[in-house]
Each structure stands twice: as C-alpha cells, then as structure tokens.
Here is the input.
Amino acid sequence: MLQAAPGNNPNPAMRRIVRPSAWKFALLAGFVTQLLLLIFVTAIGLQQLEVATDKLNQVVDVHMRKQTLTKTMMVSARERTIFILMLSKTPDSVERDNLLIQFSKNGSAFGMARQELRGLPLSIREQELLALQGQLTNASQPLQLQVIDLINADFIEAAEDLIRTQAIPKQNQVIAALSQLDAEAQKVALEASSRARDDHEMARKWLFLLSGTALLIGFLVAAFVFLYASRAGRARERLSTEDTLTGLPNRMLFMDRLEQSLIRAERHATLVGVMFIDLDRFKRVNDTLGHASGDQLICEVAQRLRAATRAEDIVARLGGDEFVVVVGDIAEIKHILQVVEKMLAAVAAPYQIAERELFCSCSIGISVYPHDGDDSGDLLKYADTAMYHAKSSGRNRFQLYDPAMNAMAEERLQLETDLHYALGRNEFILHYQPQVDLDTGRTHAVEALVRWNHPNKGLLSPAVFLEMLEETGQIVSVGRQLLETACHQTVRWHAAGFSHLEVAVNLSSKEFWHEGLIASVQTALAQSGLPPHALQLELTEGIFMESMDAAVKRVHELKALGITVSVDDFGTGYSSLAHLKRFPLDVLKIDRYFVKDVQHDPVNEALIRSILSLSQDLKLKNVAEGIETQAQLECLRKLGCQIVQGYFISQPVPAAQLATLLSRDWLPAFNLAHQVQPKRQSSNAHRHTRASDLSESAESTEVHSATQEQDACPMKPKLLPT
Ligand code: C2E
Ligand code: MG
Ligand code: MG
Here is the structure.
C-alpha cells in the first residue's frame, strides 16, 4: 500500500535531458574559455598599444629634438650675420671684444647642435641637406674670419664690402639650407607621427576587434549556458513533479492539485472524489513477461484512465501499479461512481502486449470530500484503505470508504506484528489434502498447506498472511520449517504402512530463488529420512518465467536430488508450451478456475482437454485441483484426468485426521467402479494401517473431521455409467 514498486524504467527521453553534471561542466568550460579569451585579448591589446605608444613617443622625442637643433642652428647662423655686421659698426674695442666672444660662443653652439643633429636618425634628404649645409658653412666660415681680420685691422670699409658682397650671401645660403633642413625635419616628423598614429589606430582597432570577439563569444557561451541550464532546470522541475514512465503527475504534484481541488470545492460547495487504483495481480505480469511488458501495461493503463476522465480531472501515478484519480465539481456521489465504472471497464478491456493478449483488472478505493474528511492526506489514506478492501473482497471492483475500515487497517497492522513472532512460537502448522488416483481409488499423495494457528484469531488460511510473509521475506525460514515438518510427517505415514505416499509442498518465488533452497531440501530429506522420490515441490508458472535460464538450471538442481517437481495452478499464468518443454517437470496441476464450470462451460472443458493432452505429450502426470462436486469429478474422469484433489474428496485436514483417509478406497465413495487396471502398483496395496500410530505422531491436535465434511457434502454421489 502506498509504496513505489521497483523496476520501472524511466523515460529515456528524460534521461537524455537531465544530466546535471553535464551542464555544470558546460557552464564551467564556458566560463574558463571566456576568461582565457579575455586574458589573451587584453594581453595582445596591451602589447599593441605599448608598441604604438613607444613609436609615438620616439617620433615625438626625436623629431622635437631635430627641430630644436635645426632651429638652434638657424638662429646661430642668423646671429652670426648680425654679429659680423655689428662688429663692422662698433668702433669701441671692448665692445668689439665682447661681440667676438659671443661670435665664437655662437659658433660652438652651432657646431654642438650640428654634431648632435648628426647623431639623430635622419632621413636621406635630411642627411643631404645637412651635408649641403656643411659645405656651405665651410665656404662661408673663411669669409667671416676674413671679415673679422679686416675689422681687427681697421679696414672697415673693405670688411663691410666683403660682408655685403660675399659673407652675407654665403651665410644666407647656409640659412637657406638650414631652412630647408627644418622644413624637411618638419615633414619627416609629420610623416613619422602620422605613421605612429596609424599604428596606434591599428592597435586600437585590433583591441576593439578582439575584445568585441571575446565579448561575442562570452555572450554566446553565456546564452548557451543559460539555455542549457534553464532547459535542465525545466526538465528537473518536470521530473520532480512528473512520473517519468507515464508522464502523469507524480505524488508531489498530485497532492498540490488535490489541495487546490479541495479549496475550489469548499468555495463552490461541491464534492470531490479521490480514487485510489491498484492493478490486480500486476506482479504476475511483471514476473512472467518481464519488466518491459509490465511498464508497457502501466503506460497503457495510464492512457486509458486519462481517456476515461475529463480534462480537468487529475490522474496521477503514485508508483508501481498504483494510480490515483481525483474528480472535482461533483454534485452527487453517483456521478463519482459513474466515472469509477467507466475506469473499471476501461482497464478491464484486453491489452496487446509483447504480441500477446493480456487481461488486467483493477481495484478502486474511493473517499469523498467532505463526507470522509477535508484533509488531502487523510482522503488519500482513506481511498487507499478502501482500495485494500476492494482487493480483499475479490478484486476488479470498487469500494467506498467507511470509517470502520480504519479499524480493519489497524487490525492488519496488528497481524503483521503478530506474524513477526509466529515462527518463534511455532504457530505455523500444516494441513494435508489428499490427492486421489482415480485408477486405484487410493490416496496417492497429500498436499501440505500451511495454516497459522493465531493465539487470538484461531486458524488462519494462507490468504490472510502468505503475502505478508513474502513481503517481509519470512517465507524462507517459515517454508524451511514447514518442509522439514512435511518430510517428517510423511516418513511417519510411510512407517505406518503407506510407504508409497507422496507429499507435495508449495514453494513461493522467494523460496525458489533463495540460495539456500537446495541445501534446505537436502537437509529436510536427510534429517527425516524421506526417500527423495516421495517429495514433490509445487511451483507456479510465474516462477518459471521470471528468469527462464536460471529457473531451468534450478529445476535441474532440484531434480538432481531425486525429487519431483509440479506446476501448480497451471493455465492461469502466461507460460507457453515452448517454455514448459525446457523444464524437466513431472506433474501439471490444473487450476481450479477451469474445473469450476467444467461440466457447463465448453471453453473450460476444451482447455482441460488440451492441458491433459499436453501433459500426455510431455509425459507428465496431471492433477485436477478444486473438485467440489460429484459432477466435476465425473466430468474430469471422463476427460481422462488421473489424479483429483478438492473439497469433494476432503478439505485439507490436520495430519492426525488424515490417517483414516489414507486407508480409504475412494471409488465406492464416489460411486465409481475400478474401470481401469492400475498402471502401477498402488502404494495402498501394501499398506498396514496403524491408525493409532498415526494419531500419536500427528503434529496437530486440532479436530477437523474430513469424513464428517465428506458426509455433510450436499452433493450426493451419483452412479456413473461405466
Ligand atoms: P494451492 O497450492 O493451489 O493450494 C490449493 C488451495 O486450494 C488451498 O488453499 C486449498 O485449501 C484450496 N482448495 C483445495 N480444494 C478446493 C476446493 O475444492 N475448492 C476450493 N475453493 N478450494 C480448494 P489454501 O490452503 O488456502 O492455500 C492457498 C494457496 O496458498 C495455495 O494454493 C498455495 O499457493 C499457497 N500455500 C499454501 N500453503 C503454502 C506453503 O506451505 N508454502 C507456500 N509457499 N505457499 C503455500
Ligand atoms: Mg499447491
Ligand atoms: Mg493450486
């Protein structure tokens, strides 16, 4: 109840979307790439800018210096002319000496500037102009010295004449060359600065381009990460609210919607129906056809439930084979029941799964707001309790919640607790039901059936507790003890003279697959001394189909111990002939479902015929279970059934009461004649009944008269035409 069943594979599409580690990795990778790119771009940009700035600085420094030097030279050259003119006009010798000192200083300033200029990077044109200036200066300087000599010798007129005719024109040529040099220097400076500006511009462009690219990539990465993260987030959100197999809302979303429905219903004073749906015998489909088929069935049921309800109704899957449906805005309970009927019919329609036709029913529990409660959790719990009742009263039905059910649920809980101590307190006992060979009329074997001798509730049948034992896994230790008891008891019957009596012990799936099974059987046989051939283990078809190869291997291991193996409830599972052929079986037990109407239902009769012919083909013995009437017995005998078991012969009884039944010749009791010569010597032919021995050794002292039941049977045996 209210548990998720394992084994449902999540939707592969969902699996593809949600990989939290993947998007985290993408996020990290995106940011690292962007960071590296930005560092790279910044480094390149800075380097480019530095180069451009250096160039610019160089251009500025060199060309400024060049211009300064050229200007200094020009000024010196002009001043030189002025000094010579002033010398020629100055009569005072002291003043003349001062002028001469300045003239010579001016000469050295000119020389130093020129020297420095030559050391700077010059263009070819600049070098040519400087060389020209050098030549012109070389030509003008001797003239100037000549003028100074003439002035010093007071030949002023001659000096002025020389100044006017030669010295000044020559000096003007020097100045003109310097002026050209200055213009050239300016031109070169302009070109250099323009180049530097271009480089700088280029660096700036590169910086913009690269940082723009980095930004774009960063933007793309961020957009991608954002999209990916939001997609993963949406998928995670969906996963947390959606059942991955069916796409229906899961429990979380369901509870939320149920609460909203209750709020709406309170406002509009309407009813809300909560239906808890559980598939009947779903485990058998899963065990027999595998989880993939089980999943397919679940999906199909989900679709049918969705189709059977209105769009505004809530259909959710709680897990395993449990669904829940909420119908709101309902005026009368009968409207809820109409939906329920529709869902029962929808689920019960045949399914095509794994190329087979399958039938599946469901049990539905219903709680109604506000009659049963106003809390969503309580309503769900009550619907679940009601579903449990629907299930225990026969499945494929619905059940409205009744407060009395709570007490029953508590009782079940108490039973589960009691079950925990039952094994330690030896409360499990065996009853035995005879299987009669119609050829000999003797009890050929007995089936051991467990009962729980509950301290307060009395004798309980397996229907009440077997499932709980299986759920908790206690079935393994309980089964082991029962097997030992059955073997010991049969040895006592052998000792009492029924030396060919066989005992059939039921095994559940958990017991069959338990790794200690072979050892348990060996121990039970060894400790009791029961010959292995007298022990028969009954397995259901579902077990065979769970894992075919492993099951074949295990049955071989059991057979190797010398025991016999039978298929119980044959015909109710989904096993096919081809599969059965792979198992080394001994007996097929026809399920009582087919026996029930055999004399009226031609389909059941045909089925039994085919099972009997199958058992003949496979050289298996057959046993018909659940014979309740003389008519069924007669019918089965006519069909060729060899061994029969059922209430008509005897109910399962404690060992002590079986003694009288073992010595009985049943054919007269059935009003049947010994029609066929026994194929094998009946075990009963050798018997020496010691009933007193049997009652002493019987494990149970409970009084349960099979003969009385037999006598009280309303169906009086009729004479059979032989
Ligand atoms: P099963 O192995 O198919 O046993 C036959 C069941 O049918 C028994 O129910 C038996 O009492 C009942 N039965 C026999 N004849 C008739 C009849 O004529 N009419 C009707 N209506 N029923 C008849 P029981 O004892 O309640 O056992 C139910 C199931 O519980 C068994 O079905 C078997 O699968 C399981 N079981 C019983 N004992 C054990 C046990 O010791 N270990 C395990 N693992 N399972 C057990
Ligand atoms: Mg059985
Ligand atoms: Mg059976």
Residues 568-569, 589, 625 surround magnesium ion (ligand 3) (CB under 6 Å). The chain is about 60% helix and 15% strand. The first helix runs from residue 12 to 17.
